[in-house]
Amino acid sequence: MSTVRKLTLSALVAALCVISLALGSFVSRVSLSMAALAGLFPAAAVLCCGFGWGAGVWLTASALALLLLPEKSPALWFACFFGHYPIWKALIEGFQTRAGKPWLGWLLKLLGFAACMALLYLAFGQFFAAGIPFDFTRSAAGPWILAVALLAAFAAYDAAFSILIGWFRLRVLPRLR
Q1: What end-to-end distance do the CA atoms of the chain give, in Å?
Q2: For residues 45 and 13, is the Cβ–Cβ distance under 8 A?
Q3: Residue 117 and residue 15: Cα distance in Å, rounded?
Q4: Domain boundaries, the chain
């Protein structure tokens, strides 16, 4: 694929990211879902154009969404996790395939997710604490219950993401080339 085609495809994919984040910004109930959906677009750029182009899509869409959208929550989720997750997922799964150890890939993905969530909580703790329905600070087990629930949700997201990437490779990618 030529550089002009890669640039055009990456720009269109970044625009689709911002559009889906804008939908999440205007309908507050689906902001996290739209950020997760927007995370599919950098994966398409990685598959079609390579890691550098996928990173460019993530950075461009994150910057535009944080600058232009009135509600920053979906843009923040995208910038801090869902946007760069397809890039490091592809890198980890490539490493996992070369190493021949599937458990190593899951361990690295879970550690990466835990690090992202810990950084998000440290940076924006008050913002996210308002969205938790139960006061986990009263119980000693509260943070651990929340951590296990988040890791289980991440494992389900990763499995669904892998299925969608497989579908994209079989159905869409041959038509783009």
Answers
A1: 7
A2: yes
A3: 26
A4: 3-172
